[in-house]
Amino acid sequence: MTSTASSTFDLPALMADLHDLELITDPTQITKLSSDCYYFSPVLHPLLSDKRGDLVVRAANEPEVLRVAEACVRHRVPLTVRGAGTGNYGQCMPLSGGVILDLTRMQTVKWIKPGVACVEPGVKLAAIDKQAHKIGWEIRMAPSTYRTATIGGFIAGGSGGVGSITYGQLRDRGNLLALRVVTMEAQPRVIELRGDDVQKANHAYGTNGIITELEIPLAPAYAWAEAIVTFPDFMAAARFGQALAHSDGLIKKLVTVCADPIPTYFTALRSVIPTHHHAVLVMIAECCLEPFRELIKEWSGHLCYEKTAQEAAKGVTLMEYSWNHTTLHARCVDASLTYLQTLFPADPDLKLVEQMYHHYGEEVMMHLEFARAMGTMHPIGLQVVRYTTAERLNQIITEHEAQGAVIFNPHTYILEDGGMKTVDPEQLAFKEQVDPYGLLNPGKMRAWWERAGHG
User: Fold this and answer.
1) Buried-exposed string 120-151: b where 16+ CB fall within 10 A, e elsewhere
2) How many beta carbons lie within 10 A of that of residue 49, not counting itself?
3) What is the reported pTM?
4) In this structure, are residues 367 and 383 in contact, taking their beta carbons and an 8 Å threshold?
5) pLDDT tens digits, residue range 128-178?
6) What is the DSSP string of 7-24?
7) Which of 2, 292, 299, 388 is the S-S candidate for 240 at Cβ 3.0 to 4.6 Å?
8) What secondary structure, in 3-state letters, does 261-311 show?
9) Residue ranges of the alpha helices (H) in 322-416?
């Protein structure tokens, strides 16, 4: 792999051009602000542990972003955009040094109206919800890092999360309404993308323009109660989770299934989850609790934990034991653990889930999130893996794919090799237009460096 960005540049000249902006030169701070949660992957850790920028710039508004972009193009300095750095794949880690553009100061919620919010990229997802709740709305979906993640980082690096059981994935039409992006041309411009054009910069790791404003759709806000239902048999837990996911009359935000021993990694929940049981973590509208209990009874589940919405709003929520936070809790107990991201087929019998659960046992501990993908409800696996070698991990991935599962590989920082799987010609064409020198997060988009025959 080669990068079109220069590996040498005049840093003092760049800093002189930007002297009146907030510049961070302290090496410790630069190292911290050059990293995300890449260490979840034992494959990525040795590849990225020494990657850091040369300078951090904290922009406070769009005019400052334009100035940074212009200066970086003038001096041919790579630029990597950063939010809160809560991603797991090295998306915001600079492979070629240069400037880290931190957008966490851009925290303005510009306006909110029924169904839509207009925000700057550095606004935390929880802060958007706090404002939206005042008029009875909330964000549609969020990662488990909801309290700390920024909306710009989620759109640039995320794909779905809590709420996807109802609203699908970020790339589904209607889940992102508009973007303003700053280009990296000799004379940077601001481009507004609306409708399907948002896909040119959606989930592009910041390689296709610097996002300075977003319009996102909102959902009606519900009072979300929380519950944990346990089963002595894993497939009973998985089938209950699927039955709940398909219960259209029950309004839910989260259905997480964790096979034993994963619940033992949830330190704060150990006292409520019976030993050697499999747990289903649920966020459900309070108005649906009575029929929800009937479903539990039908499936012979044990309701071991329940909180009203008011109680759940205090302290840590079950959201923070789901999606990638499940892996985080496991790694807090055993740092050698890692994970996979698997789209299992939509199957009423969950045959492949059952096959893989029994085949791998505790080497690949089953963790399912039920979510809509491509218009259909699917069990999405974020299995917790007992890592031994990269070769064994690749073998596990290959075996899943051979059986019809789709692996969204969390052990690569290349855009197309992780979630996308294929080159997006529209994103490549847009990058050629807005980043002709290849300065934005170089080395992350395979299509860019393969287009000229680089390998």
Assistant:
1) bbbbbbebbbebbeeeebbbbbbbbbbbebbb
2) 12
3) 0.95
4) yes
5) 999 999 999 999 999 999 999 999 999 999 999 999 999 999 999 999 999
6) S---HHHHHHHTTTSEEE
7) 299
8) CHHHHCHHHCCCCCCCCEEEEEEEEHHHHHHHHHHHHHCCCEEEEEECHHH
9) 323-333, 351-360, 390-402
